[in-house]
């Protein structure tokens, strides 16, 4: 519904109320005339009319008092909603370790775009590392947020709603925008588009730590109506894990070693399950995260206090793991990957914990191991993952551990930035009271 339509509705409502008041006054006047006539002529017939008109006046009077305030409240509510939609709140990244809440004018969608009312937006590890200034992947003044789900509040001119849309339909938004015409896009690799932009990552694109955000309508992927709407915010990180598993080239029944049991490591494990991979071994030093991942029927190993190489050999064979996915991305975890991956095996570097890594290059070259990078996902993988999330998979229960609104988001970023909050997934819910 456009804002123009909304304001028209408010005006109609106001006019309707005025008309009701007018009608009531006219009816009251008619009743009073009849009452006066009754006083002049006190015949039996007129007496009946008098009684009827008096009763009628009373009913109209009472109903007017009931209906008028009701309508005024409705108008007030519509005007408040209209005002809210003219101005949005957003979480602005001001520089290392500093966020602020600011009001901005709500943008109007252009052709091919939708104004998305954000239901939930996940806080990504990359947001946290950008917030602390470690990676330099966030620029002061920008609005972050790329793991989001929402409803359509408005669409641009000459633009059609997605098939099956209704005003409560929830859409996971693919944050990767591409031109659709370059060689990569034509090859189905739109995440390498020459003109790629990513919500809340590319400084020029406003992200979803906000009440509303503009998105190309083709990037909106339905999550159906069987699933908790907030789960739509999980489509993006789950797609990251799915793409990494595909980059590894693992197949059903093949063993996989995953390094790290944070949100992305967990997404890799869930993707491996979708692909029938197994057994899956996870290396994770944090006991809380280890216990949590072990609940997904994987073997969780402490790389510091357990004999990780021996456990990997037990489960994968003497040569080590044929497939390793590093969901951390530090020099230490890359060293683990190299020592635990079998000759000619494949290691996927997915985590981005450190921008520069050093490693034993001979361990890569002499054993002819493959080191493969993984970033984002294709549009098709995002869609497949949204379809999977729409089935409400049991494994996603409990994945969202914490919800915060404008009142708590700065504190939550600070805690995560200091490493004092190991929640699996925190989501920002801008329209909640948190
Ligand atoms: Zn392209």
3D architecture notes:
The protein folds into 3 domains: 3-85; 96-227 and 397-428, Quinone Oxidoreductase, Chain A, domain 1; 238-373, Rossmann fold (3-Layer(aba) Sandwich). The chain is built from 12 helices and 17 strands. With 434 residues, the chain is α/β, with parallel strands linked by helices. The radius of gyration is 30 Å and the shape is elongated. Helices cover 39% and strands 20% of the residues. Strands 3, 4, 5, 8, 9, 16 and 17 form a 7-stranded mixed beta sheet that branches. The longest helix is centred in the first third of the chain and has 43 residues, at 44-86. Helix 5 (235-248) packs across helix 6 and helix 5 crosses helix 11. The chain has helices spanning 3-40, 44-86, 125-131, 183-186, 235-248, 263-274, 287-294, 308-316, 331-340, 361-365, 379-390, 409-417, and strands spanning 87-95, 98-105, 113-122, 147-155, 171-173, 176-177, 197-198, 212-216, 220-222, 256-259, 280-283, 299-301, 321-326, 341-349, 370-373, 402-404, 426-428. The chain binds zinc ion. Zinc ion binds at residues 178-179, 181-182, 184-185, 190, 193-195. Residues 178-179, 181-182, 184-185, 190, 193-195 line the site of zinc ion.
């Amino acid at each position: 519904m456009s804002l123009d339509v909304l304001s028209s509705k408010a005006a109609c409502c106001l006019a309707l109320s005025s008309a009701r008041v007018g009608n009531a006054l006219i009816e009251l006047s008619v009743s009073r005339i009849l009452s006066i006539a009754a006083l002049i002529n006190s015949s039996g017939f007129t007496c009946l009319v008098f009684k009827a008109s008096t009763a009628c006046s009373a009913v109209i009077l009472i109903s007017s008092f009931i209906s008028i305030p009701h309508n005024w409240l409705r108008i007030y509510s519509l005007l408040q909603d209209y005002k809210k939609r003219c101005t949005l709140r957003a979480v602005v990244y001001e520089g290392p370790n500093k966020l602020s809440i600011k009001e901005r004018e709500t943008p109007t969608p252009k052709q091919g775009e939708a104004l998305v009312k954000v239901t939930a937006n996940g806080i990504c590890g990359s947001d946290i590392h950008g917030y602390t200034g470690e990676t330099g992947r966030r620029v002061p003044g920008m609005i972050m947020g790329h793991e989001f789900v929402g409803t359509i509040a408005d669409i641009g001119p000459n633009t059609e709603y997605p098939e099956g849309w209704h005003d409560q339909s929830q859409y996971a938004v693919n944050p990767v925008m591409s031109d659709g015409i370059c060689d990569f896009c034509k090859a189905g690799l739109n995440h390498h588009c020459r003109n790629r932009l990513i919500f809340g990552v590319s400084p020029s694109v406003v992200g979803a730590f906000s009440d509303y955000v503009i998105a190309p309508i083709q990037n909106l992927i339905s999550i159906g109506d069987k699933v908790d709407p907030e789960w739509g915010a999980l489509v993006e990180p789950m797609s990251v894990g799915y793409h990494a598993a595909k980059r590894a080239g693992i197949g059903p029944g093949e063993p996989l070693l995953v390094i790290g049991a944070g949100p992305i490591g967990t997404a890799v494990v869930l993707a491996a399950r979708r692909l029938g991979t197994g057994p899956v071994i996870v290396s994770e030093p944090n006991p809380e995260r280890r216990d949590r991942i072990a609940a997904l029927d994987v073997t969780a190993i402490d790389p510091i206090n357990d004999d990780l190489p021996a456990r990997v050999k037990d489960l994968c064979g003497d040569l080590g793991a044929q497939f390793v996915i590093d969901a951390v991305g530090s020099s230490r975890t890359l060293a683990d990957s190299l020592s635990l991956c079998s000759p000619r095996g494949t290691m996927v570097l997915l985590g981005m914990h450190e921008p520069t890594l050093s490693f034993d290059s001979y361990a890569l070259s002499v054993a002819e191991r493959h080191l493969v990078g993984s970033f984002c996902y294709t549009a098709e993988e995002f869609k497949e993952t949204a379809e999977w999330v729409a089935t409400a998979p049991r494994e996603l229960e409990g994945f969202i551990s914490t919800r915060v609104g404008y009142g708590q988001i700065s504190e939550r970023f600070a805690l995560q930035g200091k490493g004092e909050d190991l929640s699996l997934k925190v989501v920002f819910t801008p329209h909640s009271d948190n």
